[in-house]
Amino acid sequence: MADDTTPPRNWFDQGGEAYARFRPEYPAEVTQFLASVSPGRALAVDVGCGNGQLTGHLAQHFDKVLGLDPSADQITHATPHPRVEYGCAAAERLPVVDHSADLITAAQAAHWFDLPRFYEEVRRIAVPHAVVALVSYGVLRLDEGLDTRFRHFYWQEIGPYWPPERKLVDNGYADLPFPFDELAAPVLEICKAWTLEELLGYISTWSAVRNVREAGRESILQHFAADLAQLWGEPALRREVRWPINMRVGRL
């Protein structure tokens, strides 16, 4: 007989390694495109690299990639690569030699930057005609039914707990100042086949979820997890999860 006193599973209590475990990586087409428009392949600098979702893919195309993030914990969980050097640094003060970078990227990070100071650093480290790319992925999409419940959770239930910067991601960085000669970017998306645990693990990494928990509103998360589990069926079943990719790409 089941023990009715057993507390429900806390899907959102994932620990410090959750970001590295659950954040989706970008498809190869993103870095293939960025490499194709870069003036050279000597050095790419990935700013706000986190644990390297984009950084490692850049190493497939460039002789050297420098991944920089202010969080030592993120760098600790980055996957090593022989052509990647990771380091702790802020976007506004990059430890990069003047006029050395062919490509400067910021993936799911530019909305946290002091952009005028970051752009000063971009101009300082860029080679002539270098490319700068602000990459983000938008709100995920699920199968019909699941998606309806998810969107209510995202926009209505935890919407008030998102930091203001999140709006910049939701609109694909369209409102960010971008003082460069802009290039057209291809239409791309991230597509994953995830279990229920993987999806909820990813959601657990959101800043809004942390804010909900700190506000003592854990019940919002648990009700959502219970509803989604009921709609999902067998938790090990893999369902399609898609994110639209948005890129602001410019040439100096």
From TrEMBL:
Q: Does the keyword Isomerase apply?
A: no
Q: Which domain of life is it from?
A: Bacteria
Q: Which residues form the Methyltransferase type domain?
A: 45-132
The record's SUPFAM superfamilies line, in alphabetical order, gives: S-adenosyl-L-methionine-dependent methyltransferases
Asked if the keyword Transcription regulation belongs to this entry, the reply reads: no
What Pfam family is a match for this entry? Methyltransf_11
Q: Which GO terms describe its biological process?
A: methylation
MF annotations from Gene Ontology: methyltransferase activity
Q: Which InterPro entries match?
A: Diverse_substrate_MTase (IPR051052), Methyltransf_11 (IPR013216), SAM-dependent_MTases_sf (IPR029063)
State the family named in the UniProt similarity comment for this chain. Answer: Belongs to the methyltransferase superfamily.
**Name of protein:** Class I SAM-dependent methyltransferase
